[in-house]
């Protein structure tokens, strides 16, 4: 299966690429190399040096890779930067992810895997105890959109 791995030159993404190769899949990496490194990739794995916020470049990369599946690992992961520049954090992690989802839909990718830190979902640092249990706003199973099934994108 042709799999586009966003953030694939980073620590986690590059291990995903290794696992995909070992399982007989065809990974194509999309990474802006802001924190990832080309050296993390096995020789012969295609790399599109693209920022997920750049819609025209992202579209061209998707057209080149023709992915059947997406493993989305691209993100701005610095907590210090997210506190210092919350708008940039949201632009990369939210708008960028929506750009990737839109391109996946456009090219007809049948699978979408989104990975994120569990640290973003905890209430550990709250001074007050949580009154209600936190509930993820997205289902982790399939939803039909425009007559097509999109894995994991259904709203609760």
Describe what you observe in this structure:
The chain contains four helices and seven strands, in the order βαββαβααβββ. It is of the alpha/beta class. A five-stranded parallel β-sheet has the order 3-2-1-4-5, sandwiched between helices. The model is unreliable at 136-143 and 150-156 (pLDDT under 50).
Summary, kept brief:
The chain is α/β, with parallel strands linked by helices.
Tell me how many strands there are.
Answer: 7
User: Can you tell me the overall shape?
Assistant: globular
The side-by-side strand order for the widest beta sheet comes to: 3-2-1-4-5
Described by its quaternary structure, the protein is single chain
Q: Ends: how far apart?
A: 30 Å
Give the helix/strand class: alpha/beta
Helix content: 25-40%
What's the helix count? 4
Order of helices and strands: EHEEHEHHEEE
Strand content: 15-25%
Roughly what is the average pLDDT, rounded to an integer?
82
- Which spans have pLDDT < 50 for at least 5 consecutive residues? 136-143, 150-156
Topology:
Elements: E1 2-6, H1 11-22, E2 26-30, E3 47-48, H2 55-65, E4 69-72, H3 79-84, H4 86-107, E5 111-114, E6 143-145, E7 148-150
Parallel strand pairs: 1-2, 1-4, 2-3, 4-5
Antiparallel strand pairs: 6-7
Task: Give keywords.
156 residues; alpha/beta; five-stranded parallel β-sheet; 4 helices; 7 strands; disordered C terminus
């Amino acid at each position: 299966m042709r799999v586009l791995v966003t953030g694939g030159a980073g620590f986690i993404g590059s291990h995903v690429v290794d696992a995909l190769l070992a399982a007989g899949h065809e990974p194509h990496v999309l990474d802006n190399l802001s924190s990832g490194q080309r050296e993390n990739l096995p020789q012969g794995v295609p790399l599109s040096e693209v920022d997920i916020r750049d819609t025209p470049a992202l579209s061209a990369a998707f057209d080149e890779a023709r992915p059947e599946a997406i493993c989305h690992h691209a993100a701005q992961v610095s907590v210090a930067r997210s506190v210092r520049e919350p708008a940039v954090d949201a632009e990369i992690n939210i708008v960028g992810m929506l750009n990737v989802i839109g391109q996946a839909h456009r090219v007809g990718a049948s699978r979408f895997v989104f990975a994120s830190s569990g640290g973003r979902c905890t209430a550990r640092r709250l001074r007050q105890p949580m009154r209600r249990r936190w509930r993820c706003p997205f289902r982790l199973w399939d939803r039909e959109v425009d007559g097509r099934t999109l894995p994991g994108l259904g709203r609760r």
